[in-house]
Design goal:
Layout lengths: L11 E5 L5 H10 L5 E5 L11 H18 L3 E4 L2 H15 L4 E3 L1 H11 L4 E6 L1 H6 L1 H9 L4 E6 L2 H8 L5 H15 L9 E4 L8 H8 L4 E4 L1 H14 L12 E5 L3 H12 L8 E3 L12
Parallel strand pairs: 1-2, 1-3, 2-9, 3-4, 5-6, 5-7, 7-8, 9-10
Helix pairs in contact: 1-10, 2-3, 4-6, 4-10, 8-9
Bound molecules: D-glutamic acid.
Length: 287
Amino acid sequence: MYETTTQENLPIGIFDSGVGGLTVLHALKNLLPAENLLYLGDTARLPYGTKSHDSVTRYALQAADYLVQRGIKLLVVACNTASALALESLREHLAPLPVIGVVEPGAIAAVECSKSQHLLVLATEATTSQLAYTRAILRLNPDAVIEEMPCSLFVALAEEGWHQGPVADVVAEQYLGLIRERSADLRPDTAILGCTHFPLLQGPIAQALGPDIKIVDSATTTAQAVQEELVRLSLLTDADGGGDLQLIATDGPERFARVGSAFLGEKFAAEDIKLIDIHPTDLAVSG
Ligand code: DGL
């Protein structure tokens, strides 16, 4: 598919537990339109957000190995859960291949946006259990106040296509209504959507949080981090046309196309998706 084999013209590999990482892919396509992109959604094993540290790390290493075997110049871990739990293992395992996660760019976006530096992180249970966002934010501003809140049901709502409407409103209100009702001095001023699926529920989330809390996500800042890394390593493609996009899933191409089109912001069909089986390799998982 990719006719030239020079390193800078290899695709960027993007990996997520499913369709959610297409929000990051969308940002990459906008910022780096000439780059070839190879996206793998591990739909057979979604969700990662309720799984153990060992399982998520093992799945992430296997998915990354598949992309590396296909030939990529940089890996984007578009899944917040995999970024929170497995980024260090991935970097160690894949070195010297550059690996970019979404947590650090999300933390940067939030710190830049917040006036009070009182921040709220909305993510899956696995991500919040690691406090990865808290650690990333504190590295940027040791005085920041951070609250992390697991909102796992938002993933199911986005997967179901219920991004708006009464069910999404009730769930958002249940998770977030009490934060809106706090007095202004106890309320965070910025919420980070620390999960690939949450940007789709931005409407109900914004309504439940109220007008005083701004919302940021990591898609745009992740794309910027990828661009900076490619520039730093002199790995930007020298092609000047539009890059190729290849979509790969481990299960359910019909569902992937139906749900994924909303995440990518453009329509694609089941026939556009290559279905693969990830064969477990013999990988040691630590932690
Ligand atoms: N991709 C996951 C994340 O960003 C959400 C879906 C899942 O739980 O696998 O945390």
